[in-house]
């Protein structure tokens, strides 16, 4: 199992025969005398989310009905309604209509794992270390964080740099996120800047380096799944948290319990989960997923399908302005007497604010300016709503377009790039008024 690169979800959905072979081993039909055991059994119980009491009788080579019927039933404890894209590592996004609440409940916060999360997590003994180019390295428990620093709570938007990748053509490799790798939970913790200041940031520091407790998919203990960082100026923003609570409760195990970074407005990958260590460096951090083409885009616009030399890629910083229509759910059938579409959603803009949101139901001919709320704090998403008059029965598409405080608008077309990052093109939903 340790060397398996793909999850069951991907394997079974694409090629069940091969999955069967890879997981159970080939025992020529009809002489299947082996039984499910060892790594196969462990993996299977993980996928099913429960033990298999009669596993001793279960022929190897049998595709369990739960898998044969598709992995829609793949359950992640404490999550509700998420679409699972992969189970190894676990990646799951939230359908737009389940992101309607102003604050994203923990059970609807998406999951983006690059490796295998730590299993035995004890919040009472967990420590984080601040070291590298500091005056005095610090090792702190969660209680130390609470007693030594201001504890604050903010609603903060976290969006995966690859959100929207599924719409790229030619397609980009990686998790095929549609629109739901975004969340706006309330995070409680201490300011990253306060903790760094307590350790003493040396003048030579230009970058942070973040380390978590998750392990590499290969099982190799010397490899890290991901270790990213941010320029020290961004790190010192008062809205970055070392968080130990999510929506007033414990952080979900898949969202980084017991302690994680939340660096809002920048690719989610900067927000290290299961945080163990922050190192301060005098070079741009070069950990896994910092270099090459990871979380990087070409320095110039390229036509779809262009091959771009690696040295022309730059690190993604602030995420672009974007909006989501969270009500109604796409595909809705409205009452026959409907003469206006009531729509609402959220909008966010990386380090910027959203200054307006416009919606259209006639494919962009006329736009209605939405009522747009202020964020509850900087880096929270902003909620908007609008009513769009419509003539009567028929099929409508609603499009939403946000504009940020610097005048940047969401584009119609995708800004294509080789790895499928930063797709902030308009969100569209379908609505029908029947006869
Ligand atoms: N330790 C660790 N931190 C991590 C990751 C990871 O794989 N391991 N994934 C990153 C990425 S790519 C994203 S988008 C966010 C997602 O946070 P979430 O899973 O809580 O939604 O976590 C980031 N932090
Ligand atoms: Mo991500």
Automatic annotation (TrEMBL):
Coiled-coil region: none
Required co-factors: Mo-molybdopterin
Domain of life: Bacteria
MF term (GO), any: molybdenum ion binding
Keywords linked to the UniProt accession: Metal-binding, Molybdenum, Oxidoreductase
One record GO biological process: sulfur compound metabolic process
Segments forming domain Moybdenum cofactor oxidoreductase dimerisation: 314-431
Gene3D superfamilies, A to Z: 2.60.40.650, Oxidoreductase, molybdopterin-binding domain
PROSITE patterns assigned to the protein according to its UniProt record, in alphabetical order: TAT (PS51318)
Domain spans labelled Oxidoreductase molybdopterin-binding: 118-287
Signal peptide: none
InterPro entries: Ig_E-set (IPR014756), MoCF_OxRdtse_dimer (IPR005066), Mopterin_OxRdtase_euk (IPR008335), OxRdtase_Mopterin-bd_dom (IPR000572), OxRdtase_Mopterin-bd_sf (IPR036374), TAT_signal (IPR006311), TAT_signal_bac_arc (IPR019546)
Name of this protein: Sulfite oxidase
Organism: Kaustia mangrovi
Higher taxonomy: Bacteria, Pseudomonadati, Pseudomonadota, Alphaproteobacteria, Hyphomicrobiales
